Amino acid sequence: RKLLLIGYGNVGKTFRNFLHKWKEELDAEIVGVVTRRGLMMGDSPEFRKDADVSVTDAIDKVKPDVLIDMASANYKDGQPSLSAYFHAFEVGADVVTTNKAPLAIRYFEIMENAKKHGRKIGFQGTVMSGTPSINLYKVLPLAKVKKVRGILNGTTNFILTEMYEGRDFSEALSEAKRLGYAEEDPTVDLNGFDAGAKLTILANLMLNKKVKIGDFQIKGIEDLKLDDIEEAKRRGSKIKLIAYADEKEISVRPMEIEANDPLFSIDGVENSLEVTNEVQRVSIRGPGAGPETAAYAAISDLFIINGTK
Ligand code: 80F
């Protein structure tokens, strides 16, 4: 299977390493990479430009079987990825994405368009990276989901944990950037937008809510003071950035979490999601951010889409 990558940053380059490791099992190869700088034909560890073309034109030039979107999130309009998906479906390619923005803005249109053209879209990497959330839902069929609740952003959970341990906010943010957890523009982690985009995708997929990012309350951690965190600590609890949705409500905001709550022990870059359906509750925990886990999400989607054993 021929792959065209959009974006070649931390996640894109790690994806390439994994692809080489599992090349035979995945039966796939990179035939092109398109970034802001242009198109590179073929596969190389460092980007070098071969042509100046748009992402959509790159699809026509490369003719991939699968478009792998690892470009930074553009929450203004989801472009150029959004148009690239529609074009890919039209010309017979599947899509695998770790980029949340297009789905957070136009979830239903993307899904309907994929269906119309008989194509697939893998988007595990958009929520909790390689820790199965989207793909977990695929093995919980039929039972109606009542609510979802979780800690869905690695950067802010890492920062809150560091601050709880008495470290400085800006030091913790620098460390999250260094470790490749933060978005290209870390403001979208801090203001809750990244968690909001993930919750939007979950609410569409699991609760059948036709919401888009911007439709509901999102509050981040930027206004939290060290004092707030220390006061919660004295009361034996922790402040966490909680994403919540049920049939009526949907929000992202910092909340005080008591010691007997399973989310209390989710620290650092670890994330967690509880899915309550009409039969049972399922909880998962695992890394929420980092180039390896995000790249692994795309690898897992590629494997599932291929149906390769
Ligand atoms: P990085 O900034 O390293 O690379 C982005 C690449 O996109 C660059 O090559 C850039 O040229 C390209 N690009 C940007 N705009 C473009 C355009 N208009 N056309 C073509 N190319 C364009 O970003 P990462 O870290 O490699 O992330 C890539 C994508 O994966 C982003 O959409 C992320 O949101 C997503 N992702 C990243 C994760 C991570 O841990 C995790 C899962 C998804 O929970 C958290 O704390 C989250 N901040 C991380 S979630 N890196």
Task: Explain how this protein is built.
With 309 residues, the protein is of the alpha/beta class. 39% of the residues lie in helices and 22% in strands. It contains twelve helices and twelve strands. Strands 3-2-1-4-5-6 form a six-stranded mixed β-sheet, sandwiched between helices. The chain has a six-stranded mixed β-sheet with strand order 8-10-9-7-11-12. Helix 7 crosses helix 8. The radius of gyration is 19 Å and the shape is globular. The protein starts with a strand and ends with a helix. The mean pLDDT is 97. Ligand 80F binds next to helix 1, strand 2, helix 7 and helix 12.
Secondary structure blueprint with pairings:
Elements: E1 2-6, H1 10-21, H2 23-26, E2 29-35, E3 38-41, H3 55-62, E4 66-69, H4 81-90, E5 94-97, H5 101-116, E6 121-122, H6 134-137, E7 145-151, H7 154-164, H8 169-178, H9 187-190, H10 193-207, E8 217-218, H11 226-234, E9 238-246, E10 250-257, E11 270-277, E12 281-287, H12 291-306
Parallel strand pairs: 1-2, 1-4, 4-5, 5-6, 8-10
Antiparallel strand pairs: 2-3, 7-9, 7-11, 9-10, 11-12
Helix pairs in contact: 1-12, 4-5, 5-10, 7-8
Bound molecules: ligand 80F.
